[in-house]
Amino acid sequence: MMFTQKLKEEVEPIIESIYNDPFIQGMVRGDLSKEAVIHYLKADHLYLNEFAKIYSLLIPKLDDKEGIKFLLEQIDFVMNGEVTAHYTLADYAQVDYKTIIKDGEWYPTSDHYIKHMYFNAYRYSDAAFTICAMAPCPYVYQQVALKMKERHNFNGNPFKDWVDFYAKEMKPLMEHLDGWVDEFAEQASETERAILTKNFKESCIHEKRFFNMAYTQETWESVVE
Ligand SMILES: Cc1ncc(CN)c(N)n1
Fold first, then answer.
1. CA dihedral sign of residues 40, 42, 45, 51
2. Which of 82, 132, 204, 207 is the catalytic position?
3. Under 8 Å between Cβ of 3 and 181
4. Catalytic-residue membership of 137
5. Has residue 169 got a pLDDT over 80?
6. In the chain, what are the domains?
7. Active-site residue among 137, 186, 202, 218?
């Protein structure tokens, strides 16, 4: 079994638990609190900007032209494409998107997640370590959206466009990311493979915490209350 296939099997229970968490279940019912949605957008706008910059940090780590072209396309997608999903959420919250993101904030959970990626980008010369920390970003959303779509009818649900956006074919992106990781994993030491696994799993847990952060409207003050 390929290394990334095994990783995906190992994180399936985490993804199922994200599906069952109150943020996603609120979307399924179509009654998620507007405050949770606004909190999510304030954090996610900042998160995606940094995520795009982390792709750019991978460019000097790659030699193949195709790979570099792919990274540039991903930067464009994160900066300009994914905003579509944000607009669906802002429409639900009935607040102007630009007004919401004007005072975006780094909350403890989102702050921790992005630093996990930056750490790997600066700590390790091979891109595979960072890619393992980044891959759950598209993978978890795709898997959660597919579960939502498979189990519920979203006709008339205010989050339908959000679900359709993330459920759509992510195969080319995941194939690229998996290819890099599998190639490196084949010749990696046991210690290196353990770090790759840990990075991937930790990011899946960061994804879970990110939704819960928005649901509970986490702040730096609230974590010490
Ligand atoms: C925190 C987070 N993780 C994943 C995604 C989907 N790219 C996102 N928009 N935000």
1. negative
2. 207
3. yes
4. yes
5. no
6. 33-219 (1.20.910.10)
7. 137
